Structure prediction request, 213 residues.
Amino acid sequence: MSKKPPSTKSERILDVAEELFAIHGYDGVTLRQIAQGAGVDVALANYHFGKKLDLFKAVFDRRAVEVNQARLDALRACQAAAGPGGPPLEDIIGAFLTPLDDAQQGGGPGWTNYLALVAYINNSPYWAPKMMSSLFDTLVLEFIAALRKALPGASEEDIFWCYQSLSGALTLALAKTGRIDKLSGGKCKSADISAAFERMIPFTAAGFREVCR
Prediction:
């Protein structure tokens, strides 16, 4: 996932909105603050994106195709390497998580802000039903199908509840709240997504096996 410097006023508006929404949420940001941060008039922000809600959706949509494709490519790669029997749980979960770490490592602060925004939306009973399904459900169901193949005989309910636990752990990791930093006395850093995923993969794989056996 590439890091691109802003080259247009509309991209600056999106970048600033992405950062502010990720930090303060939808209700904590005004269109005027976004315009000021981007160095443009509010009228120009309105011209490019319309109301604040339209801008919020544009920010959320902007990187979704790229991140979904990276995760799907990772899933397809591990499936091809595994052959007809399908990949083990760890590889499936790794394909779900690792592209997000890669995006943050190689894509700069914009990707960090975007994934924090995904965490904010996914954890909201108001925003999640309105915005997650259209962009992410098709991808998630691809992973559910792979998990189903890796866990033959598991009930649909168990697989989906285990996925819910994985999604919850991922959401907390992407939010980078700093909570684990304080609890661990600095031994763990919420900004260290690589360390979080390194442990999340075997932890959730074991959980799937225990619940779905």
Notes: Residues 63-212 form a domain with the Tetracycline Repressor; domain 2 fold (CATH 1.10.357.10). DSSP finds eleven helices and no strands in the chain. Residues 57 and 131 are 8 Å apart (CA to CA).
